[in-house]
User: Which sequence fits this backbone?
């Protein structure tokens, strides 16, 4: 499996908020593109909690997971950049 790393603007407010949350030990979940599908993954986890054919299905699952764990949901676009953050 090839890993793809995306360039991000380290000064972007969402990136800063994410880094601060990780440093404080707060959990977050992410909707990410992977091999033509969409996954929901907890930050720091090596495994996805779900794999979906569309982003909208992944977002629905991610909303439920983040709500149940009282965490933030980061929705990434096809390019890997964060496009939206939803508070759990």
Assistant:
């Amino acid at each position: 499996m090839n890993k793809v790393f995306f360039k991000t603007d380290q000064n972007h407010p969402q990136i800063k908020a994410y880094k601060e949350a990780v440093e404080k030990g707060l959990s977050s979940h992410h909707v990410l593109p992977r091999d033509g599908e969409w996954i929901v993954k907890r930050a720091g986890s090596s495994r996805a909690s779900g794999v979906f054919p569309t982003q909208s299905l992944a977002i629905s699952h991610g909303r439920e997971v983040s709500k149940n764990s009282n965490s933030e949901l980061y929705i990434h676009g096809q390019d890997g950049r964060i496009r939206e953050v939803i508070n759990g």
Observations:
- The helical segments are 13-24, 55-68.
- The beta strands are 28-34, 37-42, 48-52, 72-76, 82-86.
- The chain has a mean pLDDT of 82.
